Amino acid sequence: MLPFAVQSEGPYRLVGWSLGGVVAYEIAMQLQYVEFLALLDTFCPNHNTLRKHQWRSKHTLLNDCLLASCEEFYERRQNTNSKQAGLSDGAPSKQKYESINELKEKIDQLNFDALLKKCRELSLLPWYFVDRSDTEIQQYMRVC
């Protein structure tokens, strides 16, 4: 609910949690007078971040999610391996990172199905996705 639906004149006091904090900030920027603005557990989007994601398609966001899942998996694996004796070189994970970075460069040119196929071919998928169907993985990515 917009603040002026309850209170027609300022000063306004706004609070936003998570994504609501970004919305509260934008409302504060558009109102004439804001007495108090609280942002709880809110990220601070910068101009470059907003422009980068402003017009991204649904498939591109799914692609971002898929590659982020792969990257996070290998990052955790690398951290675990580096703590164990004799496994600190990280050569296989370095190769995986390079493959992920190459796919990131092509992310806007691939639809989700093509990217998922590439990830399967390059063995980039985390173990918990390997036996899943493309549809199951896509459904998972939609909620990530």
UniProtKB/TrEMBL annotation:
InterPro entries: AB_hydrolase_fold (IPR029058), Thioesterase (IPR001031)
Pfam (any one): Thioesterase
SUPFAM superfamilies hit by this protein: alpha/beta-Hydrolases
All copies of domain Thioesterase, residue ranges: 6-45
Protein name: Thioesterase domain-containing protein
Source species of the chain: Candidatus Regiella insecticola LSR1
